[in-house]
Target: Ribonuclease Z
Amino acid sequence: MNLTILGCYAATPRTFTNPTSQVLEIKNRLFLIDCGEGTQVQLRKNKIRFSRINHVFISHLHGDHFFGLVGLVSTFMLLNRITDLHIYGPKGIKEIINLQLRLSNSWPNYGLLFHELESKESEIVFEDDKVIVKTIPLKHRVYTNGFLFQEKVGDRKLDMNAVQNYEIDKCYYQKIKNGKDIILDDGRVIENHKLTFDPIPVKSYAFCSDTVYDESIIPYIKEVDVLYHESTFLDSEEVLAGKTMHSTAKEAATIALKANVKQLIMGHYSTRYDSIELFKEQAETIFPNILLADDGKSFEF
Amino acid sequence: MNLTILGCYAATPRTFTNPTSQVLEIKNRLFLIDCGEGTQVQLRKNKIRFSRINHVFISHLHGDHFFGLVGLVSTFMLLNRITDLHIYGPKGIKEIINLQLRLSNSWPNYGLLFHELESKESEIVFEDDKVIVKTIPLKHRVYTNGFLFQEKVGDRKLDMNAVQNYEIDKCYYQKIKNGKDIILDDGRVIENHKLTFDPIPVKSYAFCSDTVYDESIIPYIKEVDVLYHESTFLDSEEVLAGKTMHSTAKEAATIALKANVKQLIMGHYSTRYDSIELFKEQAETIFPNILLADDGKSFEF
Model:
C-alpha cells in the first residue's frame, strides 16, 4: 500500500502548497482521493501516469477538494483516453462537470461514470476481487464522506510440506486455499488448518477530511492500519475549529487513539501556521504514531 | 501600459507551463484576461496583489481559458474581499460559477457581477474616464471574443508660457485643456492650438485568442500598439490549425501586417513543440516586430 500526497493544505492553493489530493496505490490499483485545483500538475510532478487513474473519490464539494476535477477530466480527453473513468462524489458533482463540458462543447470519448452519493449511512462504493471501498459519513459544513479502503482477505497459504505429505492431488489446492477441509481416499478428514497458514494480513486505509471532531466515526475506522485525519488547526484555534467544523491536531490524535489505529497521518493544515511541526508536537501528547503529510511525500505501508 | 503573461500555452497545464491568463495594467487599472487553471498561483508567483483585480475578461468557455476562475472567486472570498468583482464572459459563465458556489454552500460577501456576452458584433463592455474595453468577435469552435483595451484621449496639455503671456485666469485652464478657444477681455479670440500642445498619445492593446485566421477582425485591431494574437501551431500543422480553428505563427503575423499594428506578441502555443523560438522565426518572415509571450514575462509599452 502506497500513499502519495499531492496536496494537503486547507483553503487556497499557494506558490508552494496545494489543496487536498492524494493517490492511494493498493493491490496494484490506483485511487485518486479528492482533486483540488492544480492536481493534474501535481500528478505530473509526482510522475503518476494519468492512464492508471480509473477511480476518483471526492469527499465533498468545497473548492479545495474538487476544483481540479474538471481540468483533469478535460486533460484525459485531450490525451485521447478511452478507458472509463469512475467518479464517486456528492450529488451535484455530475451537474458541475457536465455543465462545463457542455458549454465548452467538448465531450469525452471515454466513459465518464458518476456515482453520486447522498446517503448518510456508510455504504460500499467500490468493490472488486481485491479491494473494497466504503464511505465514512463525516460531519462538516456540507455533505461529506471519508473513504475506507480495505484489501480483501486473500486465500489461505498452502503448507506445501503438509499437502505433499498427505499426497493430495493438485486439483484440490484451490479448495484448500479457500479454507476447505479435505477427505483423503482412505476416508480420513484433514482439517484445513493442518494444510495451510493464515493468509497475508490485509491492510486498510481511512481518509477522513474534512470533519469536525466526531467520535461517531470510530466504529468505521477501528484498528485501521493508517488513518489520514484532518487537523486544520492547532490548539490555539480550538474554538474556530468547532465553529468551522474542522479538527485540531489533538482532536485528530484523540480519534486515532480511541479508534486504536496503527498509524495516524495528519494533514489539511491551515495555511496560517509557519511550520507544520507543531501539529506533530501537539498530537504526540495524545497518540504516539504520528506522521505529517506534506505535498509530494509518499508513505509505504 | 504593462502586460504580464501568467500563462500562454494551449490545452493542459503542465509542470512548467500554464494555460492562458494575463494581466494588463493600463492607466493604473488592472485587468485580468482569461483565467486557466492555476491562475491564482501564477498571480502569487508574479506578486500581483489580488485586491487590485476588479475586472476579469473571459474570452471563451474552453477549459484552458476559464477553469481557474471559480478558484479565484473562492479565494477572494476566503481573503475577505469586499470590493465588487466584475466578470465579462460568454453566456453560461454565471451558471458555471454560481452552481459551484451554491453546491459548496459558500457565497461571497463581495458583489460578484456577471456581464454575460452573446453578441456577435463588437460592443463596449467596460468604460470609465480613462479606459474603454470593446469585444472583438472571433471565430473559434465555441462563441469567443477577443478584447480591445484602449486608453481614452486625455486633456490637451497647457502651454504655460502662452497662457501666462495672454494673462488668462486659472479658472479657464480646464476649459482650455478640454480644447476650447478663449475670448480675452479685449474681445480677441485666442484659438486653442495657440494655448495647448496635443495630449499624450493613447495606447491600445488587442487580445485575440483563440481564433482561426480571420481577416474580418482587422478593422477592430487596425493600428493598435500591441496585438496579442494566438499562434497555436507552426506551418507544418497548417491544416490542423484550420480544422481546430486555431492560427499558425505565419497567420498571426499576416494579421499583424494587414492590420498595421506596431507590435505583435504571439502565444497560445501548442505544447507539442520543444522550443517556441520557431514561432518567431516563422512569423518574422512576414512581420518584423514580434515578441514571444512566455509564462512570467512582462512587457512595458
